[in-house]
């Protein structure tokens, strides 16, 4: 009796564990990923506002102080299907884009890899900058990816 219960338990364990591993490369094999959005706008202007969300998670509307780092962590899903997007408002300007859609390049379609466990964005007067690795220089740089519309 005890032995068969043990067998059933062991059988269930075998069924469950490969599933767990395939669920998330990050978080099971590696730590969680993070997205950082840093407000680098001048402190004397109007406040920056943004609203970030994924399909399942609404991070709400937020207005960071100058130099503040707004960040969150998450585990990547099967097939790397996690996608976070944000709306930004400043003066009468607006912008909207995906801030995370790929575990290697932060957003899909970028050739520059990011080997870090986080994606770092800076919101500046002249646009939105993402930290990316430059193979030639072997160093990270903040690169302009989007202008304010
Ligand atoms: C990430 O956000 C938390 C508040 O949620 C803040 O305390 C922390 O300093 C931020 N991380 C960094 C690296 O600034
Ligand atoms: C990497 O750095 C080199 C040397 O500064 C520069 O010429 C090149 O454009 C950079 N590549 C990217 C993708 O930014």
TrEMBL record:
Keyword Signal (UniProt):
yes
What is this organism's lineage?
Answer: Eukaryota, Viridiplantae, Streptophyta, Embryophyta, Tracheophyta
Q: Which family does it belong to?
A: Belongs to the plant self-incompatibility (S1) protein family.
Source organism superkingdom: Eukaryota
Query: What compartments host this protein?
Result: Secreted
Q: Name one GO cellular component term.
A: extracellular region
Sorted alphabetically, which InterPro entries does this protein's record hold?
Answer: Self-incomp_S1
What are the alphabetically sorted keywords of the record?
Secreted, Self-incompatibility, Signal
**GO terms (BP aspect):** rejection of self pollen
Q: Secreted as a keyword?
A: yes
> What is the protein name given in its UniProt record?
S-protein homolog
Q: Which Pfam families match?
A: Self-incomp_S1
The signal peptide here is 1-24
């Amino acid at each position: 009796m005890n032995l068969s219960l043990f067998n059933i338990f062991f059988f269930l364990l075998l069924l469950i564990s490969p599933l767990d591993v395939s669920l998330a490369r990050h978080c099971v094999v590696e730590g969680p990923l993070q997205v950082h959005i840093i407000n680098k706008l001048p402190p004397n202007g109007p406040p920056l506002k943004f609203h970030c969300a994924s399909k399942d998670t609404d991070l709400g509307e937020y207005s960071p102080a100058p130099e503040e780092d707004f960040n969150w962590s998450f585990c990547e899903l099967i097939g790397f299907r996690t996608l976070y997007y944000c709306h930004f408002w400043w003066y009468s300007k607006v912008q909207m884009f995906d801030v995370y859609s790929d575990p290697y390049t932060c957003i899909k379609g970028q050739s520059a890899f990011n080997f870090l466990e986080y994606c770092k964005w800076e919101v500046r007067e002249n646009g939105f900058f993402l930290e990316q690795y430059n193979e030639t220089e072997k160093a990270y740089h903040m690169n302009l990816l989007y202008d304010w519309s």
